[in-house]
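User: Could you write out the 3D structure of this protein bound to pyridoxal-5'-phosphate? I've included everything you need below.
Assistant: Certainly. Input first, then the structure.
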Amino acid sequence: MPPDRAAGEAGLVLSERRDVLHSWCVQAEWDAPTVVGGAGAHFFLEDGRAILDLSSQAECCNLGHQHTRVVAAIRDQAERLCFIANAWGAAPRAELAARLLDLSGFAGGRVYFTLGGADANEAAVRIARQASAKPNGLIVTRDRSYHGASQLGMALSGDARTQSQVDPAALGVRHVPPPYAYRCPFGSSGGGDCGVAAAAAVAECIDAEGAEAVAAVMMEPDAGTNGIVAPDSYWPALRRHTAERGVLLIADEVMSAFGRCGEWFAWQRYGDDGRPDLMTLAKGLTGAAVPLGAVILSNALAARLDHEQFNSGLTYCGHPLACAAGLAAIAAYEEDDLIARSRDLGATLFAELQRLQQRHAVIGDVRGGRGLFAVVELVADCATRAPLAPWPEQPPALKALAAAALAEGVSLATRGNLIIIAPPLVISERDLADALALLDRLLARFFPNPE
Ligand SMILES: Cc1ncc(COP(=O)(O)O)c(C=O)c1O
């Protein structure tokens, strides 16, 4: 049945509810307002309300909504050339590849463009296996990670929601415990020790399988989509262990790049001691204006593929409209100094959340804050760290808190017991402060301190 246009927005809402299969939800429970526009850190509902986007949608609208520079670049490119396949050259694709190699310091490397994050990770695995001449080489990833919802993406992920849909072992994936310092799987009490132990567990896994059988290790270097934030000790140790064993290291920077963790790419925090062999990008690459992902490979890997057939590619890889958006997005990050801004505001955000932790017994842990990304973990009991609900279930009071925030004009992302705060890097100091004041009030209302 076509949407009842005569019924206006109401007809479209009905059609959205009835006709669309929405992702990551129970269809019968889907009940979201229709969004009709946006500007900066806000998006606009059809009833005229402006909502502050405290999660940048899926941590992807790093530039906020409708960034004028990006919109203009898409329009310009559309007027010149909407599409040409990868078999042909396209100026925005070439320019974007050169910019990415320059920003990442992967001199002499290459960029393989994809449609998003999951296929970037799949491609990175394929490239790692081919370039290391280990066509069936194992890939080591970790629990409580997220690498995408394609079949291999789900196998790579350590995600409780999708793990029953796929058999990681059959796809050559091994999982190790995460550097989850607040609940360290290795029993360490400090974050630094937990990072060291988690990196050592990767080395042990490689040694147990035999380095010749392992093609690559794939990890999120900093902020993880499932709420883990790697301690500083983790990534450089992982780099050392993998290099010593001749195993490639893939940084999944789909979420953590483009300022989200205070750097262009999160591994850059560690300088060349943190440089991976490959890294994957999406989300902030265009600020989500158009879907685009990428795999960046090192000089050495690129050279190995120079004279071999590479049998991979999707129709829209390196789409000119998306690449034009990517170029404009990079210009916007640079012109507005958004990477440094994220670092500065991220520190303020982190300090404010720590202050909230002192005031609310329900806050067990606050992590992140290297950029505009922070995780607030709620607990039933701070002393024992007992979770409010078993992961990944969501406590009803947290659901109610998020609904109350939306009613007050703030969109807040929650995952299990976690509140994820990842606003657009363009958010004003005032909006961020107001949103945190609202969070303070709502925590007191939905999770009052014990008498
Ligand atoms: C770290 C990470 N990797 C991969 C993905 C998958 O990206 P996409 O949804 O574009 O396929 C995501 C998406 O949330 C992510 O956060």
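The first strand starts at residue 35 and ends at 39.
User: Perfect, thank you.
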